[in-house]
């Protein structure tokens, strides 16, 4: 399985600022903040583990649907530190035992892996592993994903009367000056570039066809957005009527009353994942595995994704028709298999060069 670059929050790859976010959530943590399962500051003990979580709504949801129930079920306290992935990586470099489990962006996970800071997850210790979609399990054993979202096409339903069906629709002359795409520094940006390369005879390691394809889109571009909020304003104002965006963000904007919709292009929407890892320095390996197994279990995964408005990674999770009507999520064997993937390790390696080219060939 190709590794999939995931969450869309600001992080750093090779010294570059990469815009990502998770699950349509406000990941607002600006720095580390340790809290225990009850929300109060706690130190580590023999009967506790420390985890790193994204902040904001994600951390609140983790606390209520995973951390507190885990403590109630096992008696193990969970000390939660909130930090974006790049900050968590810095903490691990300073202390390999800073966390026992960490939620991190895949791109940063591969940096941590390259630095020798992670250990493989022992699948034999995970009772629920067989219930996961293959997409959610790193074939090299370094991460397990707890939610799935996707990058596809969002559009203003008042301005676009015929829903798009393909990435190629973005090149339709009727959208001249009305298309918005993400900067290559954001997940949707490098995913879109890599996907265009792959659809036109290239790959993550042969990106030229992708740049050639995107250069031909320039007559249709209204804007290149850098944050999800910018795309929200572009779509609702009508400055852009169609573009590359995230399923979860489209769901949230639609719930606010905006006339927007999301489609999965026939070539496949692009998988967006969030994942958990076990740092090499932990001395609580069994408890770390127990926590991960609890998070991916059917009952817990179901509660978690329904609060955050995302797709589950446990294939036995059942979502109601009302939830699926309100949220654009990848769900079920067929939809999960239809998702396109990109190679996270290759992108992390080449992204610095891509960013330089983007500034001269696409942004200008």
Automatic annotation (TrEMBL):
Coiled coil regions, renumbered to chain: none
Q: Name one GO biological process term.
A: polyamine transport
- Keyword list, A-Z: Signal
A cellular component term (GO) from this record? outer membrane-bounded periplasmic space
Record SUPFAM superfamilies: Periplasmic binding protein-like II (SSF53850)
Sorted alphabetically, which CDD domains does this protein's record hold? PBP2_polyamine_RpCGA009 (cd13589)
Give this protein's Gene Ontology molecular function annotations: polyamine binding; thiamine binding; thiamine pyrophosphate binding
Signal peptide location: 1-28
Per its UniProt record, what PANTHER family does this chain match? ABC TRANSPORTER SUBSTRATE-BINDING PROTEIN, THIAMINE-BINDING PERIPLASMIC PROTEIN-RELATED
Protein name, as recorded? ABC transporter substrate-binding protein
**From which organism does this entry originate?**
Arthrobacter wenxiniae
From the broadest rank down, the organism's phylogenetic lineage runs:
Bacteria, Bacillati, Actinomycetota, Actinomycetes, Micrococcales
């Amino acid at each position: 399985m190709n590794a999939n670059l995931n969450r869309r929050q600001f992080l750093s790859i090779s010294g570059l600022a990469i815009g990502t976010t998770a699950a349509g959530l406000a990941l607002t943590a600006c720095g580390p903040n340790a809290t225990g399962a009850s929300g109060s500051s706690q130190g580590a003990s023999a009967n506790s583990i420390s985890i790193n979580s994204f902040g904001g709504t994600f951390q609140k949801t983790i606390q209520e649907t995973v951390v507190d129930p885990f403590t109630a079920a096992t008696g193990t306290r969970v000390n939660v530190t909130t930090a974006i992935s790049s900050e968590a990586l810095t903490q691990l470099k300073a202390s390999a035992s800073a966390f026992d489990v960490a939620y991190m962006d895949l791109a940063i996970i591969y940096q941590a892996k390259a630095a020798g800071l992670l250990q493989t997850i022992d699948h034999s210790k995970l009772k629920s592993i067989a219930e996961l979609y293959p997409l959610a399990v790193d074939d090299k054993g370094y991460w397990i994903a707890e939610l799935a979202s996707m990058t596809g096409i969002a559009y203003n339903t008042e301005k676009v009367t015929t829903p798009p069906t393909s990435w190629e629709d973005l090149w339709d002359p009727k959208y001249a000056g009305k298309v918005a795409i993400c900067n290559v520094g954001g997940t949707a940006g490098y995913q879109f570039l890599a996907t265009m390369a792959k659809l036109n005879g290239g790959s993550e390691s042969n990106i030229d066809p992708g740049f050639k394809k995107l250069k031909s889109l320039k007559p249709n571009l209204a804007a290149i957005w850098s944050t999800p909020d910018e795309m929200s304003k572009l779509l609702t104002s009508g400055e852009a009527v169609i573009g590359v965006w995230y399923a979860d963000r489209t769901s949230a904007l639609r719930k606010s009353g905006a006339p927007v919709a999301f489609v999965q292009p026939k070539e496949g929407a692009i998988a967006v994942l969030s994942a958990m890892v076990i740092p090499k320095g932990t001395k609580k390996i069994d408890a770390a595995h127990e926590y991960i197994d609890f998070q991916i279990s059917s009952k817990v995964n179901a509660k978690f994704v329904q609060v955050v408005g995302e797709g589950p990674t446990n294939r036995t999770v059942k979502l109601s028709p009302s939830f699926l009507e309100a949220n654009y999520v990848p769900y079920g064997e067929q939809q999960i298999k239809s998702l396109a993937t990109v190679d996270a390790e290759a992108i992390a390696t080449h992204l610095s060069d891509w960013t330089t080219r983007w500034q001269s060939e696409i942004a200008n």
